[in-house]
Each structure stands twice: as structure tokens, then as C-alpha cells.
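Next comes this protein:
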Amino acid sequence: MNDVQIANWLNDNGHPTPRGNKFKNAHVHSIAKKRKRRLEILDRKPILSISNMNVRYVSS
């Protein structure tokens, strides 16, 4: 399904946007784009780096 078809399906089945409007293909495209970006971020392995570290020993 393309964005227009998905927007039409959502509107035909009574699903409003979060603000209560009708869906347009741009809304569907934006939602899909944000989901894709979020999934890419979640699939990345975390990068661990330690920098600028100082260790001091203080005797008491």
C-alpha cells in the first residue's frame, strides 16, 4: 500500500489524527519516516567510550 491508500483506509475506518483531523498522505509519510528512523537507532550497537578520565589517590 502507498501513503495515499493508507491515509484513505485510516479515514474510511474512522481513525482521526491525534488532533482530530483527517489523515493525508503527508501525515502517513511522516509517521513511517519517523518509525524507520527510530528502528534504525534501536538496531545500532551502543558505542562505549571513556575519555578525559583522572584518577587520584588521597591517603587519609
